[in-house]
Amino acid sequence: MSKKILFPQIKGLLHGSDYNPDQWLDRPDILEKDIELMKKAKMTSMSVGIFAWAAYEPSEGEFHMDWLKNIMDKLYENGIYTILATPSGARPAWLDEKYPECMRVNADDHRAHHGFRHNHCMSSPKFREKTGIIINKIIDTVGDHPGLAMWHISNEFGGECFCPLCKKKFQDYLADKFDHDINKLNKAWWTSFWSHTYNNFSQIEPPYANGEFSIMGLNLEWKRFTTWNTTDYMKSEIEILKRRTPNIPVTTNFMQLFPGLDYRVMAKELDVISWDSYPFFHNNYETFADTMARSSFDHAVMRSMKKDQPYMLMESAPGLANWHRYNKLKRPGVHKLFSAQAVGCGSDTVQYFQWRKSRGAFEQFHGAVVDHLGTDDTRIFKEVAKVGEMLDNLSKVKGTLVKPKAALLFDWDNMWAIENMRGLSDETKNYPQTCADIYHEFLKLGIDMNVVASDDNLDDYNVVVAPMLYMLRPGAADNLKKFVKRGGQLLATYLTGYVDDNTLCFLGGFPGNGLSELFGLISEEIDTLYDCDINSATFTNGNKAKIRDYAEILRVSDADVIARYDSDFYAGTPVVTRKTYGDGKSYYVAARLDMNAMSELFKTMLEETETPYYVLPDGIEYHKREDETGDTIEFYLNVTDKELSFSTISGDKLTLEPYGVKIF
Amino acid sequence: MSKKILFPQIKGLLHGSDYNPDQWLDRPDILEKDIELMKKAKMTSMSVGIFAWAAYEPSEGEFHMDWLKNIMDKLYENGIYTILATPSGARPAWLDEKYPECMRVNADDHRAHHGFRHNHCMSSPKFREKTGIIINKIIDTVGDHPGLAMWHISNEFGGECFCPLCKKKFQDYLADKFDHDINKLNKAWWTSFWSHTYNNFSQIEPPYANGEFSIMGLNLEWKRFTTWNTTDYMKSEIEILKRRTPNIPVTTNFMQLFPGLDYRVMAKELDVISWDSYPFFHNNYETFADTMARSSFDHAVMRSMKKDQPYMLMESAPGLANWHRYNKLKRPGVHKLFSAQAVGCGSDTVQYFQWRKSRGAFEQFHGAVVDHLGTDDTRIFKEVAKVGEMLDNLSKVKGTLVKPKAALLFDWDNMWAIENMRGLSDETKNYPQTCADIYHEFLKLGIDMNVVASDDNLDDYNVVVAPMLYMLRPGAADNLKKFVKRGGQLLATYLTGYVDDNTLCFLGGFPGNGLSELFGLISEEIDTLYDCDINSATFTNGNKAKIRDYAEILRVSDADVIARYDSDFYAGTPVVTRKTYGDGKSYYVAARLDMNAMSELFKTMLEETETPYYVLPDGIEYHKREDETGDTIEFYLNVTDKELSFSTISGDKLTLEPYGVKIF
Amino acid sequence: MSKKILFPQIKGLLHGSDYNPDQWLDRPDILEKDIELMKKAKMTSMSVGIFAWAAYEPSEGEFHMDWLKNIMDKLYENGIYTILATPSGARPAWLDEKYPECMRVNADDHRAHHGFRHNHCMSSPKFREKTGIIINKIIDTVGDHPGLAMWHISNEFGGECFCPLCKKKFQDYLADKFDHDINKLNKAWWTSFWSHTYNNFSQIEPPYANGEFSIMGLNLEWKRFTTWNTTDYMKSEIEILKRRTPNIPVTTNFMQLFPGLDYRVMAKELDVISWDSYPFFHNNYETFADTMARSSFDHAVMRSMKKDQPYMLMESAPGLANWHRYNKLKRPGVHKLFSAQAVGCGSDTVQYFQWRKSRGAFEQFHGAVVDHLGTDDTRIFKEVAKVGEMLDNLSKVKGTLVKPKAALLFDWDNMWAIENMRGLSDETKNYPQTCADIYHEFLKLGIDMNVVASDDNLDDYNVVVAPMLYMLRPGAADNLKKFVKRGGQLLATYLTGYVDDNTLCFLGGFPGNGLSELFGLISEEIDTLYDCDINSATFTNGNKAKIRDYAEILRVSDADVIARYDSDFYAGTPVVTRKTYGDGKSYYVAARLDMNAMSELFKTMLEETETPYYVLPDGIEYHKREDETGDTIEFYLNVTDKELSFSTISGDKLTLEPYGVKIF
């Protein structure tokens, strides 16, 4: 596969920012000053027009597009490319006033009032008509502008709508899904429970706050529908862009493991993945290294959606955010460290929200490259300029890839199903955190993991960890069996294979759908532990592991028991098993073990597949990118506020200043 | 009085379960398997049809009743009786679609959407018409079935409705109650406060969330009305059943001290009391013995509603629940222990929710006798079968009674009035827990208490404890005086006799309505203590007691002071008094003393009336049932996870394994 | 200026209470008893008719006014004056039934049901018409009554309404404010952010719960509008009263730093300030002295609104409240202590809610002079009578004033702006508490502070502290400069001068609007600290100060650095500065220092202006009133439960019993 270069027109890695000149059109002096400062900060791109609808179309049918062309001209003349947004992130007041059907209806069945952003009805034909008009106007104006580098669709999609249009669309979606056979749906959702049988699709409603919430299949499908409908809307924008500017790539900006949308479904419609990152740096509940590891995990989620090409860090805060519980300043050096991590994880850009702080309204105190002070001598500006310098010198990195040999299985709909599952304890389910913790253990071994869907192709991987795979999508069980059969090392945990993709329980023993054969066991019961409940496991090699939250009681029929419970009425029964299956091995970890114990299992799995790993010194994070020739660029990050000296993987001595970075 | 046998057709004590064959009608293999497993578990009864309306009547007027007859036939052929539910626990979708007036209006004045269960408007004529039709169809089908052992009315009644029909009915109810004289109501509710005087009954609304909440009399009467209206609905079902099947007893399933309904009002309409018990076993905030004691208290509440006959444990979880904060497994042996407690407290049945786990929807992970695994070799199944064995051998117990000599006074409307009272601290009122704690102290003395209303006949009792009797129902004060006068020992506490049954304060000193004469004192002030406020009492015999939460300052005119405050500005003033009144004694405990100190008072009261008690070893719970000849069956329960050896009340040595049970 | 005597017709200081004879009209014996008890308690005033509308007008147009005249006659005959309320605190049921537009619409856009109180639409013409009628009837009845001492307008104004009338009025208010130029508003509110530009005023809505909340200017203006509209309503009542009874003064009762209304705007329309005080005495989170200090701060807020005349303590609880989290009894002596504090702070009255406890409804357990018991021998009654005695002997105090030389700047709209500001941490902003803490430090130095607006005349003061002056109202910056220039000592803190009065950020550096010149510095960044973040400052004199919550990083251009940070990346940079400006000095404290360190600064500022202070012994609170000749009355309060002996400011030995009071 040949290297994919996202921005060939830019020399180094793209250095960009959201930019809102539409807020300063009456201040040409400030717009002038912006260009001067951008060049000082080595900016190579600006994301323009993200909420500019009212600036383009101040009243219905009255268009003011010139300023956009002027801005893009000026940027281009100064070597700065434009990532141009469709302005559908927020609606003008006139539009809501005239077409209230564009505003969402909330779960309590009341239509929202005009305000805020990102709260459109994705089903509304009028909203689509109006966004279509303005997008076409934008294309008319600058569709062929040489500075136009990419389309940025709307902004941070999210949210649900319970309006009559959406209800009807949901019903139609369900009819399609269940072959217009209401009894198929009734069986799939087990509606005979509590007399919930439907006679026809028109009886089905979204899960209103004071409506139906007791059918897990309905709840899950509503979430899938919301993804489907949001994607459907997004495609309506893409269709126009692709038709008229087929050579301009499109993206939209994601947000971590956003719980509202299955990004993988949306990713299929995009040319490039991009996302917005706002870690809670320097917080009071975890180490800085933990915060960085979670950030790295989020990068891995994004990277894995299009693993054969780089992705983009579309937004990040140059200084601080304004919506965190505590909006703490990023310490000196952290901005560069954070930027280097992004690149190390596979991003080919570092971008910000925002270029210049707005004077008023909701985000006037959100960090920006240029403060209300307006000068280039602030700490933040200087740190940004330093990153600009770094990126400018990393042209060699462009298009190189992170190529993990380990993968973590994570399904969005599994997350939804687990959250909605009535049982266990809502306080301790923690599926996403469990995934991130496992990722962190591999990171400490110098191993980047991809984060993939349970039905993704697993051929590239030696080791796969599938925590809490409660719901088995069609094909998932076979996929896992195939992976192990051909020599892979698979580890699954408590809560594996309880339900199918409609959340119907498998009969005949968990893990279902054939997985009990893969692991050689059945889980008979699952115990939910209070915080004060103490248990542990002893491995056959004498190692110990603490246990908390969950503990399954197993019937092992065909697997080696490698650890047993120490306490409680299931003391002595198996808690960790291993089975050879085909050319690989399957591990089953029946309880929530401490991560040290998990790491020992991961090391064994890596060793068995001869996957090299390296136990990094405490406080050091490591990433590696490769080009198509196998040449590598290595990233060493000091994720502490202390100076650290250590040996690199290749054995060299290296000293990193606090929050220091070294790129080889 | 002759012994009342609830189920003469069954040899031992009834062993039953909720059973939902309507969820598996397309799986005859499973229905077949069910019968086989039921016999293995020694089940003698199944509760059928609880949410089967959609199975009976899949669309309006289309009836499918055959499956019911087939199932009951098959059960009966295999020696299993049917407790048959009316299906009004949940409405079919078609009914809500066509008759939305059957759906409730919430406190925020919005009608609910279709969904969930137990949420019908009890006032709706249409709902009554439709339930009438389906109940008649059921009777047509199996009203004369030899397997039909009992009617189970609807399921777990509860909840309120604020619809126009209910509003009107509430107004009519009030007009009746206050003799169609609005000024009577105005005086009773003291509506002159804040200018709340009503001109006519049509101005009165239910306490909407954004409506009137400042009239305590209204709030209380709304709760009484909800009980009245729910009972009125329930009677509409009973009327049909009694008319057509006069020999089949009726019950409905209660839920502990459910705060929404005064069960004593409903109990009058039922032949048998039954209830659903789901203790939070093995939790992190109390000992296991405490959990069991609370469970025993709940049994006592149920038993006392019809104290001259046994009651039924209609539901319990064989394994775990799925709606607890932590859904922890019941430890081995606990199921038998819990079942034996039920019988020891006076239940003649042990029944479960549910026979077989549903594959999907809200309760798919709720414990059941038969798991998704589907076999008879699970731990849970085996524990259930063991209980089946035990019950089968307890035919001697049938119809025997628990006959307490001590009673605890508890009024539902007193609970409502205390909760709604503006004063003290909402964080520490804890009326129900205070009652349960007192019950527990008697339990430790080997004494079963009944839990009775303040205006119940008290002739059977030697000792009566009336904690926090804030509201005096008509007749309550005289009832207490009569009890003491004829030789009873009565103990009351702080917060006694503040208001009448409309929550109007008594003038002239608390406790009002003549009770200050019974106790020989007036309570002048009540202090509410923060957690950090430390006080204590010293008894004349030198004993000490800790005090928390509440402390009244007394004026004692005619009683012996047996304890005084140690601290604060009321140090040295009386806190516990005793007065001889007629042939009995009245105690007043003016502060919330620790339960050890209370227990000493209880012992004195028992001794004075020559009521035998026995200080049980720690960890042992004891119950006794008697037949009409005075023969007794004794139950010793080890409510710890340790083996315990001790002397029984009759002086025999007994060793009980962890969670062990011995029935003599 | 000549002394203003609020109640020349009363000999001592007024001793009064809310009185609701309308609740007892059918009990003449109780009304008779009331008079007898009032005289025993030395009451000189009763506040009558506060919620008496339904008693005056039981149905529309039917008036029963005689009882009012009879009561006022009887009171007057017994030497008791009447403060007569307009009855608009609560509406009769018939009014809501017939004119639902008088009921408010909540933030969720639903109209409230009838109930509670203080929940009228202030815009409703019908409500104004109806209150106008009843007020005129009252004047007809007793407008010339010799016992009528004052008008008490409605009761405890508060709350918002989102009805169509209020929406329209808000739009009109905005049009007026912004010269009917929507673009002025757009610029002032920075609506270009997120495409929120308005085309006309009719598009602007109040901040509905599910509406616009992202425009800080809108949110702030809505709060200002609510004050404006409430005042507009209040003026509609005052207009009638002043027209017909021009010699009767008017007041309304305020509530501390009530967050819903800018009392200073309302104060302009009143003759006298009065307020309701319900401190959480003896709580579990602060010392008793802290509770008293906060109470004193609240008094200062009230006093400062009309600093050239006394104010009134309109309500307080004789015993306990009934709406606190814990309704604890006031310890013996506290009532007198609290009353003396009120007088020491400048109140010429001590008044209660309520005279006699109501028998039912929301406040039946709220403390009162006369309990349900109904006698004069209760602890509470006796403590009240003792205060009556004290007030009767304080005639010398009447009309004297507290004349502080120090002032604290506090703006209501600054409070609103800070609360609504997106940034920092919502958990630690604590603007009002920070003000109260500073006030407390001066109190410990024997200094009463006034609490004034940032644009108030500051000529009377030597020292001004302006904490967290985030928003600069027009004129505020010049006012501060003028104050320092003429020799004043000014101290400002972190978060000064960020935004203008529309919440637009100042460009060119904070503090803006010229204040960076006054302080000789710019604040470049503000760091928000977690609880666990430790920092401190070292002063040039070696003193240390702890730092928490907030820390700004400064660029000092023209000021002396008198303290520097000890830790973090800004260690060694300035945290406290001082600049000589004109004849005065300006201090800037860039971080939240502990109050001990702040107190040292305050002492220096007092010394530099030769303002005498005295470090009071722990547990002693001190206030001073002066008459126009300079004669003083001094108040020493023991705010502990221990006896304290100490030297007074004049050097005399004084011993105060627990909660003791000495007035010289």
From TrEMBL, chains A, B, C:
Span of domain Glycoside hydrolase family 42 N-terminal: 18-393
One GO BP annotation of this record: carbohydrate metabolic process
Superkingdom assignment: Bacteria
GO molecular function terms listed in the Swiss-Prot or TrEMBL record: beta-galactosidase activity; metal ion binding
Listed EC numbers: 3.2.1.23
Span of domain Beta-galactosidase trimerisation: 405-610
Protein name (record): Beta-galactosidase
Key words of the record: Glycosidase, Hydrolase, Metal-binding, Zinc
GO cellular component: beta-galactosidase complex
Entry keyword annotation includes Metal-binding: yes
Protein's organism: Butyribacter intestini
Keyword Glycosyltransferase: no
Family according to the record: Belongs to the glycosyl hydrolase 42 family.
Active site annotation, chain numbering: 156, 315
Binding residues annotated for substrate, in chain numbering: 117, 155, 323
Reactions mediated catalytically: Hydrolysis of terminal non-reducing beta-D-galactose residues in beta-D-galactosides
First-tier enzyme category under EC: hydrolase
Ligand binding (Zn(2+)): 121, 161, 163, 166
